[in-house]
Amino acid sequence: MNTKTSILRGALCGLLAWIAVAAQAGEDSVAKLVGKLQSADKSARLQALDALGQHGEAAAEAVAPLKEMLQDASGDVRARAAHALGAIGPAAKPAVAALIELLKDPDEMVRRQAVKAVLRISPGPRVAIPLCVKLLEDADAGVRVRGLHAIAEAGAEAVPGLIQALKNDNAAYWACLVLREIGPPAKDAVPALTKLLGDSRPEIRREAILALASMEESAAPAAAQIAAALDDELTCHAATYALGRIGRIPPGIEPAIRANINGNDKLLSIASLWTLARVHPENKQHYRTAVAQFVEGLKDADPLVRTAAAHALATLPPAPEITIPLIEAGLRDADETTVRHALDALATMGPAAVPSLIEALKHEKTRGHVIYIIGRIGADAAPAVPALTKLVADKDEHVALEAAVALAQIGPAAKDAVPALIEALHKSENSTSHAFAYALGMIGPDAAAAKPALSDLLKNSDRKLALVSAWALVRIGPATEVAELTLPVLTAGLASDSPLARRGAAEALGRLGPAAAAALDDLDKATNDRDRDVRRAAEEAVKVIRGS
Amino acid sequence: MNRIWTTMLYLLCPVLTLAQSGPSGAFGSDNGQQPYQPAVPAPTIVSPYGSPYYGYSGGASTAAGSAMNGMANMMSAAGQRNLSNSAAVMNLTQAQRSYIENRNMATNTYFQMRATNKAARAAERTPPPTMEQLARIAKDGAPKLMSHSEMDHVNGRLKWPSALQQPDFEPQRREIDQLFEKLAKYGALDYADQTKVRHAVNEMSSKLKEQIRDIPPQDYVACRNFLRSTLYTATKTDL
Fold first, then answer.
1. Neighboring chain A residues of B121 at a CB cutoff of 8 Å
2. Where are the alpha helices (DSSP H) in B30-150?
3. Are A237 and B78 in contact (CB under 8 A)?
4. What is this model's ipTM?
């Protein structure tokens, strides 16, 4: 009896569970949600819309009913319907016209969602560009910013529309911003921009000047009109900068620019020094004076002056022999913000800046930033290896990790760091071990001394650490020697729940070449992986292993 | 478009936290005036195909280009400052002044959004090696965007876990709520606002840690993950 009861009870529980699951599944289905869109209860409609939005592309069958919801009396409903259509993406193309109509909606949140949706549906440049140019007139900044972005993405294709927008009082300012970003490919806008230099609004004149500046030598015909703006305190900074960017100072104008160097306006002084240094690169004396002033500017109390000085340093024609010693001098006893700005300037100088960057490692608060810049320089940053090697043992895990990654980026030239990395690998019982193993792998055959330590990690319970270690062993090689040891870990890695791990495993197997023949079946399966990058890596590995 | 959207997922990586957190504010936002805006694009974590990973964008190779745009922005700001202090603007009505302020804010947001967008695409073009990403993720785990149950993606409203709804967290919660409304409006936050979110999140994390004994472990972990996602989502561009 008891047995029968428990069987019945079990069956009943199973049935109830099935009903619950089925009901849940039913609630989540697109068809059911579409049905709920007709609910008289607004909150039910809103919930259904949000849920459809979460379905994304899979809710394509809901496009028609969602399109109808764009007419709903509630702004919240209209906004969420637009949001859901955007989430569906290109399959919601039939709703584009209705969404464009919604851009006249009085509710700004509705308009924002409508523009987002149209851009996500990607109706193509013929529809999108004129539409977005029109959006520049919208009263809501949220709508305008999205329109601006879409136009800037279109690049040169949008220039004719932007030239038209320059004639519109409400859109001209924004059109100037986008044209500034497009730069030389927007050179057809030079005449229209030049016309705007006579506009009564100073912000329009200023932005027109900056847009012309971005067109560089194409804007040379406008140099005289730009120079005329030097007399106006609202446009003089932009005009000075523009002449430097264009690379041409009209005759008779240079004395005025020189006079501004010693004026009270520090930003104008920076712009003037910068422009003269760009126009006269041969004048080393002026260059030295300009750099010295910029370095001084890095310490100014006014943050705008500091930032302008850093940008000025970073955009001068390169002369590291002059710039670096001056920056180094400026770094002495500098505060944190100054150091950051100086680092920005140093970063543009590439390998030449390495000695200064090594020196800058002593600033504790900006150390991470410095390591990042050193790492980006790559193999040319080899002189930094001893300093980075010390940091591998830093008590701050983030610093240790970044130092290891920077050493990895330096690659084989970081071979002197191998003993420290091995020691760190032994000591480390935290997640930084992955970075140490990675660095050893990137150093390659010269890290052979790390093989025993890395081999030990193949059995580690952290399977990602085991995988990075196997990958490192493969990089150290030779393949014939490490294949047997690493194949089980790498093959198992193909089944990891992390797409990155699966991809890494496939890449490492490919690197093993024919020695990984035993993994071919698993790699074949991985060519159907749900992740595109994993599929590509697997296909590549199969090719290499088969020798085809 | 969807792909672009997913490409825009950002998080400040440890090096940023390290490099830019300090007594003067994460981006050196001294005196509450002009925030520090790096000429070297910030290292980012980008997720091109939905699987988040750590990656760097920009760096030395693109610093000069970014600085050139930055230089133009500084010149624009200089003119704007003079304009704001000019007699003509002093005589404007409050509504006209607000219009100018809003336009300046939209301008900054626009350039900020474009900079992060370009950086994300650069990272997509040359992603860091797979194993570097794996090594970085091992440190802190893969970051996650806020889910629909945590945030209303239409209006930016956050659905705070109950433990973070306590009065202790109110000032930071209010600040983050305002910033997320702004995020929903513009589709992105600029450096200065991202910094404010990071400060508020850091303060909330510290308070949460102090209360660790009073909060059930599951709730504590949920709050921590919520804050982490808050930070991540605040740095993304959602167009």
1. none
2. 60-84, 87-90, 94-125, 130-140
3. yes
4. 0.72
